[in-house]
Write a structure and sequence with these properties.
The structure holds two protein chains of two kinds. By secondary structure, chain A is mainly β. Helix content of chain A is 0%, strand content 52%. In chain A, the strands form three sheets. In chain A, strands 2, 5, 6, 10, 11 and 12 form a six-stranded mixed β-sheet that branches. Chain A has a four-stranded antiparallel β-sheet with strand order 3-9-8-7, with no helix packed on it. In chain A, strand 7 and strand 8 form a beta hairpin. Chain A is globular and about 45 Å long. By secondary structure, chain B is mainly beta. In chain B, 0% of the residues lie in helices and 52% in strands. Chain B contains no helices and eleven strands. The radius of gyration of chain B is 13 Å and the shape is globular. The chains are: A mainly beta, B mainly beta.
Chain lengths: 118, 115
């Protein structure tokens, strides 16, 4: 079974600075998806960024980018120019590409609470 | 983007009663829906996966007779917490996925409090 580990329960960063959230995962599959989700105080889950394992290029969405190291099974999220609205719980997640029923579920990490200091 | 709604957003019930939570995909057909439970300051725990027209697949340790899931149409799934007890109090989140999508879309969640 796949597992996802986020080793940083809490992180803080000064507004306008850059912060990196860590995520490692374990799988025997070669093709899969990795995601970063944001959960603000409203508790609505918001997709931040997605990475397909077969793509070598790291995904980027505006101020958010990932460092995907497939061999190391590492998937970190970098937030540049941090803003107060970035304060939230961030979850790393894995999804299999297997067509087997039940394999499409997301496997979440424990989460990292990010605080932005003004 | 795709929108998923949940109703109600908050519910308070007495111990021993049953509560139904609805999850709707508003602008797409959800072939698969997922139900999660989230404790305070914790990650999402998958309870079950349901495909339209078939029985839900429950995760290990989740009582299927306690948490009844119905996915009767491509836009609606329901979670019924039967004979609720205070330990069932939690935040329940659904998500929905179309067969052609690479991602799930999440509902806003339902906070259940059992007195």
């Amino acid at each position: 079974a796949q597992t996802v580990t986020q080793s940083q329960p809490e992180m803080s960063v000064q507004e306008a600075e850059t912060v990196t959230l860590s995520c490692t995962y374990d799988t025997s599959e070669s093709d899969y998806y990795l995601f970063w989700y944001k959960q603000p105080p409203s508790r609505q889950m918001i997709l931040v960024i997605r990475q397909e394992a077969y793509k070598q290029q790291n995904a980027t969405e505006n101020r958010f980018s990932v460092n995907f190291q497939k061999a190391a099974k590492s998937f970190s999220l970098k937030i540049s120019d941090s803003q107060l609205g970035d304060a939230a719980m961030y979850f790393c997640a894995y999804r299999s590409l297997s067509p087997i029923q039940g394999a499409q579920k997301l496997v979440f990490g424990q989460g990292t609470r990010l605080t932005i200091n003004p | 983007g795709a929108v998923v709604s949940q109703h109600p957003s908050r519910v308070i019930c007495k111990s021993g009663t049953s509560v139904k939570i609805e999850c709707r995909s508003l602008d797409f057909q959800a072939t698969t829906m997922f139900w999660y439970r989230q404790f305070p300051k914790k990650s999402l725990m998958l309870m079950a996966t349901s495909n339209e027209g078939s029985k839900a697949t429950y995760e290990q340790g989740v009582e299927k007779d306690k948490f009844l899931i119905n996915h009767a149409s491509l836009t609606l799934s329901t979670l019924t917490v039967t004979s609720a007890h205070p330990e069932d109090s939690s935040f329940y989140i659904c998500s929905a996925k179309a067969s052609s999508y690479n991602e799930q879309f999440f509902g806003p969640g339902t906070r259940l409090t059992v007195l």
